[in-house]
């Protein structure tokens, strides 16, 4: 198993104030996708009482699914997209992750997980949980990039293994969601080169350029 030196860990730069995050989501129309008013979103942000730059404002995936959020991502002026062989993306639900039972909540202590690059999801999950950390679900990863697009860098992208698809027979699908940058090859199409991409990796495979995004906590106030 690769080394997971704490010195290699990349933590997030301070996030914008929560009200600024809410305004960003409103400008993108996320409140409409979630079936709430702009005032509701702003009121939650104003009352949450976090001004330390450590909290990400997230909409519950039941209210704003990944398929609706991914096209709002931008890189080099190009919109984000979901790969063609993951059109069931919204069936990937939180797995082993407890999300607040609320339409809006905060995610704290974000980390891109660079120190776990070249680990498989199967190896990384117990490492994260052993450190009292929780893997991000896909929509949380997208929300992070909506607020801080620069977090997605070439050769420094990340998986969101808190989202899994449970099949009809009760077993988990071997695909694990990830966010990275398209090379414009294959079915992506050349026009999508450098665009943000929602893709997937196998549960047992390693990738040198994919870390494992995680959080230290979640709260609805």
Percentage of helical residues?
A: 10-25%
* Total discrete domains: 1
Query: Low-confidence parts, pLDDT < 50 over ≥5 residues?
Result: 6-10
Overall shape: globular
Count of DSSP strands:
14
Note the main sheet. Answer: 5 strands, mixed
Mean of pLDDT: 94
Number of helices: 6
Element string (H = helix, E = strand): HHHEHEEEEEHEHEEEEEEE
| Beta-strand percentage range | 15-25%
User: How many angstroms does the end-to-end distance come to?
Assistant: 38 Å
Write a concise keyword list for the protein shown above.
221 residues, 5-stranded mixed sheet, 3-stranded antiparallel sheet, alpha+beta, single chain, 22% helix, 6 helices
Helix and strand arrangement:
Elements: H1 18-28, H2 30-33, H3 38-47, E1 55-59, H4 66-69, E2 74-75, E3 78-79, E4 81-82, E5 93-94, E6 104-108, H5 121-130, E7 134-135, H6 138-147, E8 157-159, E9 163-164, E10 175-181, E11 196-202, E12 210-212, E13 214-215, E14 217-219
Parallel strand pairs: 4-11, 8-12
Antiparallel strand pairs: 1-6, 2-3, 5-9, 6-14, 7-13, 8-10, 10-11
Helix pairs in contact: 1-3
């Amino acid at each position: 198993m690769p080394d997971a030196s704490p010195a290699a860990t990349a933590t997030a730069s301070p996030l914008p104030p929560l009200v600024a995050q809410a305004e960003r989501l409103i400008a993108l129309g996320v409140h409409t996708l979630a079936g709430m008013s702009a005032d509701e979103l702003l009121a939650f942000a104003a009352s949450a009482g976090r001004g330390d730059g450590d909290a990400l404002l997230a909409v519950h995936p039941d209210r704003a699914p990944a398929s609706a959020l991914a096209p709002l991502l931008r890189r080099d002026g190009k919109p984000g997209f979901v790969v063609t062989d993951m059109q069931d993306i919204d069936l990937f639900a939180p797995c082993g992750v407890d999300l607040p039972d609320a339409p809006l909540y905060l995610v704290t202590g974000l980390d891109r997980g660079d120190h776990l690059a070249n680990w498989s999801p199967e190896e990384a999950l117990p490492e994260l949980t052993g450190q009292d950390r929780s893997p991000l679900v896909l929509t949380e990863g997208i929300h992070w990039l909506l607020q801080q697009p620069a977090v997605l860098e070439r050769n420094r992208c990340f998986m969101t293994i808190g989202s899994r698809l449970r099949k009809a027979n009760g077993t988990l699908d071997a695909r694990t969601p990830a966010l990275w940058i398209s090379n414009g090859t294959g079915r992506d199409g050349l026009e999508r080169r450098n665009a943000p991409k929602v893709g997937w990796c196998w549960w047992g495979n390693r990738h040198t350029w994919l870390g494992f995004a995680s959080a230290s906590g979640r709260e609805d106030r």
